[in-house]
């Protein structure tokens, strides 16, 4: 299946992407993760992306589209993929339409995770990520047994630089301005399915899988 997840920062895209991709047996492709990995390794792409990320702004479309084009050309994406965090502008969405058409395929479904701004702020202020395996935790909603350490791999947990209150506010403004229009874009294509992304993580996963069932 070729699937896109959309939703505001903190909606739970990364959390759900892991479960949904495993369920569908497709690779999870997260542009945020790829950028963060490049920042951590100090690559040219990472240096380019960092200032935008730290300011809560989007990395320019051209840079992001080229990166996704390269990733979709890898063999594991040939039979389907789950995109988390891309597209998030209308020009990115129309570039993706062309990229998938070039693969001789189309996107099947765009799943929108719906949560309000207050919930986003609660989620992002308590988010912690594992340095070892990338698993996403929350100090209150999904805490590890030992504070600051990942239950899965023992890795150290850290708080993302862009989860500071003022950066989160800017990310929400950017989402409303640049990314929310994708709901209409994909709605007009008849590909959009929205689900309530509040409540326990497992319940949201079940809702997502249920919503995807009719798409095969
Ligand atoms: P990116 O990493 O994509 O950030 P984002 O879209 O802002 O999304 P987040 O990762 O913050 O949240 P999420 O929805 O994945 O939520 P999560 O599962 O972690 O992008 C970062 C930056 O990279 C951008 O600002 C931009 O600069 C750049 N970038 C990336 N893609 C780009 C693109 N296409 N174009 C241009 N620039 C791009 O969950 C959040 C917290 O909530 C966690 O602590 C989790 O444990 C908790 N949680 C999850 N589900 C639940 C639940 N059901 N109940 C309670 N808590 C929950
Ligand atoms: Zn870990």
From TrEMBL:
Keywords: ATP-binding, Cytoplasm, Kinase, Metal-binding, Nucleotide biosynthesis, Nucleotide-binding, Transferase, Zinc. It catalyses: AMP + ATP = 2 ADP. GO terms for molecular function: AMP kinase activity; ATP binding; zinc ion binding. Residues 127-162 form the Adenylate kinase active site lid domain. Its EC number is 2.7.4.3. Zn(2+) binds at residues 130, 133, 150, 153. Residues 30-59 are annotated as: NMP. Pathway: Purine metabolism; AMP biosynthesis via salvage pathway; AMP from ADP: step 1/1. CDD domains: ADK. It comes from the Bacteria. Residues 126-163 are annotated as: LID. It is found in: Cytoplasm. ATP binds at residues 10-15, 127, 199. InterPro entries: Adenyl_kin_sub (IPR006259), Adenylat/UMP-CMP_kin (IPR000850), Adenylat_kinase_CS (IPR033690), Adenylate_kinase_lid-dom (IPR007862), P-loop_NTPase (IPR027417). Pfam families: ADK, ADK_lid. GO terms for cellular component: cytoplasm. AMP binds at residues 31, 36, 57-59, 85-88, 92, 160, 171. GO terms for biological process: AMP salvage. SUPFAM superfamilies: P-loop containing nucleoside triphosphate hydrolases. Belongs to the adenylate kinase family. Consists of three domains, a large central CORE domain and two small peripheral domains, NMPbind and LID, which undergo movements during catalysis. The LID domain closes over the site of phosphoryl transfer upon ATP binding. Assembling and dissambling the active center during each catalytic cycle provides an effective means to prevent ATP hydrolysis. Some bacteria have evolved a zinc-coordinating structure that stabilizes the LID domain. Monomer. Catalyzes the reversible transfer of the terminal phosphate group between ATP and AMP. Plays an important role in cellular energy homeostasis and in adenine nucleotide metabolism. This is Adenylate kinase. It comes from Natronosporangium hydrolyticum. The gene is adk.
């Amino acid at each position: 299946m070729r699937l896109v997840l959309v939703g505001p920062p903190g909606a739970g895209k990364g959390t759900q992407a892991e479960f949904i991709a495993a369920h569908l047996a497709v690779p999870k492709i997260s542009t945020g993760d790829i950028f963060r990995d490049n920042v951590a390794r100090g690559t040219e792409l990472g240096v380019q992306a960092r200032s935008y990320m730290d300011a809560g702004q989007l990395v320019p479309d051209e840079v992001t589209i080229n990166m996704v084009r390269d990733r979709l050309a890898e063999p594991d994406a040939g039979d389907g993929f789950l995109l988390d965090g891309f597209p998030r502008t209308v020009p990115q969405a129309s570039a993706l339409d062309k990229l998938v058409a070039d693969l001789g395929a189309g996107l099947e479904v765009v799943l929108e995770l719906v949560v309000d701004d207050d919930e986003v702020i609660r989620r992002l202020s308590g988010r912690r990520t594992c340095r070892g395996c990338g698993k996403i935790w929350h100090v209150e909603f999904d805490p590890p047994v030992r504070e600051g350490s990942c239950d899965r791999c023992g890795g150290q947990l850290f708080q993302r630089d862009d989860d500071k209150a003022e950066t989160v506010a800017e990310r929400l403004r950017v989402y409303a301005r640049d990314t929310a229009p994708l709901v209409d874009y994909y709605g007009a294509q008849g590909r959009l399915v929205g689900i309530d992304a509040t409540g326990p993580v497992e319940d949201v996963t079940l809702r997502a899988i249920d919503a995807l069932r009719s798409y095969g």
